[in-house]
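Practice problem: predict the structure.
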Amino acid sequence: MAEPGESASQDWSAERYARNARFVAELAEPVVDWLDPKPGERVLDVGCGDGALTASIVSRGAEVIGVDSSPSLIEAARARGIDARAIDAYALPFHAEFDAAFSNAALHWMREPDLALAGIRRALVSRGRFVGEMGAHGNVAAISTAILAVLRSHGVDGEARWPWYFPTPAEYAERLETHGFVVLRLELIPRPTPLPTGMRGWLDTFAHPFLAGIGNEERDAILEEVTALLAPSLRGRAGAWTADYVRLRFAAQLER
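Answer:
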């Protein structure tokens, strides 16, 4: 999901996201269960994307505002009837307005997590809760290693283009506590994830930051090389691809 305040090098397309990454919302219903939104509650969805999961929160009776950085995804969310707004997650303008904050597959795009957490805390009422899921340490490790290796062979510094923040459970728990949250529940979830449009579809959707400024011909060559390098480990005998996802799911509440 697109992140407010994230690098402009990540190119989000609602059509491409829906085609290649619908599983992101479909696999996250358990996170909504952890949120357990109640009728009449006000919920802030940070990194709402195209609103597919936001709609699930709304269906449970909550009043939800979604924020995201991508105009394309915001438009798609609004088409679902979501109150979606183009707002920078590093500069949330809300103050003590929400009973809960929610985020799925978005926080790992925020390379400055303390700025995001400070804004989320300000947005919550006293004893407000924060529930989310994000990539954890080890998430897409094989995919990342292949990308970096192929980029290096093309003379590109992939490490300098690294777009993600994948914390360990202990690291993120400490960050939450530093911002005044009590961690109620936190789980590390290894989740090998089937890719309905294959590895190339995943790369076309999520690897753009690594490829910014590279010409189309070389870009295609890089993606083909990455795909070939990953085939022995992430492609099954029948040709189906799986991404090596590891997720961090948490529920926290402000101390006061």
